[in-house]
Predict the structure.
Amino acid sequence: MLQARRATPEDLPACAGIVHDWERMTDWLPAGQTPSVTELTGYLEAAFDAREIWVIGDPVAGYASLNPETSQLGAIYVAVPGRGHGRHLMNCAKTGRDHLWLTTHAPNTRAQAFYRREGFVMGDVLPGAAPHSEIALHRMEWWR
């Protein structure tokens, strides 16, 4: 059975690669706006000290990033959906907490279905954020 662990700086390029591949394969994202793996790694490095980041797999098959000060789940990505990696990472984020919130792109109905299965409820519709500011976001919240 796979176990999640806290990420190290050495894991960040693999995490960035998962995001990059997901964005390139997502048909509802505008073409040509996907940041490079190097750019994405830089974003993760800049946030590393302020986040709790977990990875699963060897090699890394998914990751989750949480801002512990705001309880915002900023990212949860898996290389291959349907293997239980997302649920395991979500359990890491929920451990010891009574509340989490996140935003998800409005067309990302697959993620929204996953979040609902995990107990999140739909909240406000928000304007998009860079780099995809033209795509509305849904705020979703979970309470223990």
About this structure: The chain has a mean pLDDT of 94. The longest strand covers residues 72-78.
